[in-house]
Amino acid sequence: QVRLVESGGGLVQAGGSLRLSCTASGSIFSRDAQGWYRQAPGKQREFVARATPGGVTNYADSVKGRFTASRDNSKNTVYLQMNSLKPEDTAVYYCAALGFTGNPYVWGQGTQVTVSS
What we know:
Blueprint (H helix, E strand, L loop, with lengths): L2 E5 L2 E4 L4 E8 L7 E7 L6 E6 L5 E3 L7 E6 L4 E6 L8 E8 L5 E4 L3 E6 L1
Parallel strand pairs: 2-11
Antiparallel strand pairs: 1-3, 3-8, 4-5, 4-9, 5-6, 7-8, 9-10, 9-11
């Protein structure tokens, strides 16, 4: 059974930084791309970033240049470094294992990120 556990969320002032981590167990981590998504109150869950096993990364336009996704296959862990945070980045952040179609098939429990102005 695949399980994803996020950590690293919290409260930060605008302009600050946070690093989220997501550790996978019970999965072929090195096979799957890992994605980061977020959901703000009253809004739909949206794509944030993706890191493939080979290290290719993709980002939503809203976070390009500020967020960096990376992965350590030896630790079955994917990271999301978030810099220059804005109040509009406030959301619950989820990591997900992506299947061959690129769609999530397993979700983590989420971690809250709150950016104060």
